[in-house]
């Protein structure tokens, strides 16, 4: 059954690649499907695209809610489509798994670039404090350097997911704030201003009225926050108060699979401006809806 599932997914991914004007790198995709195909049935699976300089270069496939006894980075290493380089990014996921309870995992791969990212989900009742994550030896020092920032904006104790991008060597910290203040115009402007990022556009201000999650991206080379992303769950991604890019419209209008009414749309604020991303679901499980976080647009 797993072979039939993965064969069908491979076919859909190839067709979706063509819709997006891309040519699938079969030598990158087949090893990933062979390594993880046995956990496909319970996974939440989606396709993701984004605007910006790298947006048209790849189409990402995201598998989340994987069993907590399957470490996707360890699988990638053992199958040879990830390689350790001696950089701290190689070690940080192991340190997280040793130090904290884990509720589940996820990973991303591109139809062009292959294996890229992993996600570690903390159990829903037990988000972790940023300060404890900052104690890990391989965590970027920028996490420690921004502890006061996270405290001031009311998210320091509620990290629910950590994402690691291996090619880009970045870490994402995800939050579902209990207070809406960070999404309101005053809180939004204060958050971005203190992070040294541009003022929010009027469209982003309106978008954040519907936001449920926020995440920050940090790296090992800088003390600053690289970008901040806000996420909205929606059944009508092209009806949001932001202008979707051409690639996003293609995925929404022409995806060769029934996405239903499940989308997560994200807007990232960077020093270069605002960029958009969308997650369109290929396989969904209603039982996990309450467990999903901003990772779905990350």
TrEMBL record:
- Superkingdom of the source species: Bacteria
- Keyword Transferase among UniProt keywords: yes
UniProt keyword terms in alphabetical order: Prenyltransferase, Transferase
Which SUPFAM superfamilies does the UniProt entry name for this protein? Prenyltransferase-like
Molecular function GO labels:
prenyltransferase activity
Does the record's keyword annotation contain Transferase?
yes
Q: Which Pfam families has this protein been placed in? A: PTase_Orf2
- Family named by the database record: Belongs to the aromatic prenyltransferase family.
- Name of this chain's protein: Prenyltransferase
